[in-house]
Amino acid sequence: METATRGRRGGGRPRLGKPNPVDVHVGSRVRLRRTLLGMSQEKLGEAIGLTFQQVQKYERGANRIGASRLFDLSRVLDVPVSFFFDDMQPDGAEAKPASTPEESGELDPMAKRETLELVRAYYRITEPAVRKRIFELAKAVAASGTEKV
Predict the structure, then answer these.
(1) Which of 11, 63, 82, 102 has its CA 20 to 30 A from that of 149?
(2) pLDDT tens digits, residue range 103-138?
(3) What total of structural domains would you count in the chain?
(4) C-alpha distances in angstroms, 118 versus 84, 88, 128, 148?
(5) Residue 85: in which H helix or E strand, if any?
(6) What residue spans of the chain are helical by DSSP H?
(7) Distance between CA atoms of 61 and 92, rounded to whole angstroms?
(8) Do 85 and 115 belong together in one domain?
(9) 80 and 127 share a domain?
(10) Under a CB-based contact definition with an 8 Å cutoff, are residues 76 and 47 in contact?
(11) Domain-embedded: residue 95
């Protein structure tokens, strides 16, 4: 038996030194939703009976999230289980390693804390008409910044 390439129990997925791309994607979706809700890793861990370190491992994709745990996460984070698989490559392939800031996601607005804070603040606006006007204002300002003068 090849114990050096198998998990602790002798079965399961091979340990090749890097996380499975599907686990990384699911973990990043957990992090996205948790952050959008303004929830700490510690609070999420408490809600599902884990330590914040375990939540960190899930979010990095270092540990695989089992079906029952994924179900618990979907309830606590108030999303359907399918949310964790949204935007995933159809073949589950991992994107090639980044070599530029654009490729590493540094310019991906959803990867920035500022974006997440803005979205949280936006949804704290309780008056729908005000929220809509803020949305329209943001679109107008963005459009004026792209016009050639």
Answers:
(1) 102
(2) 444 556 666 778 878 888 888 889 989 989 998 998
(3) 2
(4) 22, 24, 16, 27
(5) none
(6) 21-36, 41-48, 52-60, 67-76, 101-104, 113-124, 128-146
(7) 14
(8) no
(9) no
(10) yes
(11) no
